[in-house]
Amino acid sequence: VGEEAYVAPSVSENLGLFFLQEKDLEGWHIEVGGRYESQSVDTESDFSDYRDSGGSLSLGAGFNLNDSLTLKSFYSHTKRLPSAEELYADGFHPATNATELGLITLREEFGVGDSVKQELARNLDVAMVGKWQSFDFTLNLFRNQVDHYTFLVPMALEEDEDEDDDHDHEHEGE
């Protein structure tokens, strides 16, 4: 591993099961989809290995109001498991020009955070789709709520007080 590595070597294994079913019923189009995923990340470091699973479900329906207008609605409930970088980052990342610390790194090295929580997204989308003369149009209303979103948090580093002594105070006689 080179000096630029900011994540300890690890092996990730994912297993997923997916399904999608569609059905047309007297003017209605129904869709149901789901996913179950199991993940393990084994790291060659002092940090604990990660194992978790999560699932997602989506439901959708569309109804033809007439030959040129369709009302559609979709709902999804999605869990996302974190990547090895989001778990174990521990150092400077040259591409982002930032020091990155993963969720397990923060918990085990710095005592920040209780446990790794999966991102959870709930989405509701209602749409009117239609045709008018030579135009196609779609009008959408949606709500997207995400809990436990994993992202980089900018943090200010403490400066050495002697290093930059001429800032943040008044200068007399200038």
Task: Explain the layout of strands and helices.
Blueprint: E1 10-25, E2 28-43, E3 50-66, E4 69-80, H1 84-88, E5 90-93, E6 98-101, H2 103-110, E7 119-132, E8 135-147
Antiparallel strand pairs: 1-2, 2-3, 3-4, 4-7, 5-6, 7-8
Task: Describe the model.
It is elongated, with a radius of gyration of 25 Å. Residues 158-174 have low confidence and may be disordered. With 174 residues, it is mainly beta. The longest helix is centred in the middle third of the chain and has 8 residues, at 103-110. It is built from two helices and eight strands.
Task: Provide a quick synopsis of the model.
This protein has 174 residues and is mainly β. It contains two helices and eight strands; from the N terminus they run ββββαββαββ.
Kindly state the mean pLDDT as a whole number? 85
Classify the secondary structure makeup into a structural class.
mainly beta
Q: Outline the low-pLDDT stretches.
A: 158-174
Instruction: Please count the beta strands (DSSP E, at least 2 residues each).
Output: 8
Percent in strands: over 45%
Assembly state of the chains shown: single chain
In which range does the helix fraction lie? Answer: under 10%
Radius of gyration: 25 Å
Largest sheet: 6 strands, antiparallel
Order of helical and strand elements: EEEEHEEHEE
Spatial order of strands in the largest sheet: 1-2-3-4-7-8
Coarse shape: elongated
So how many helices?
2
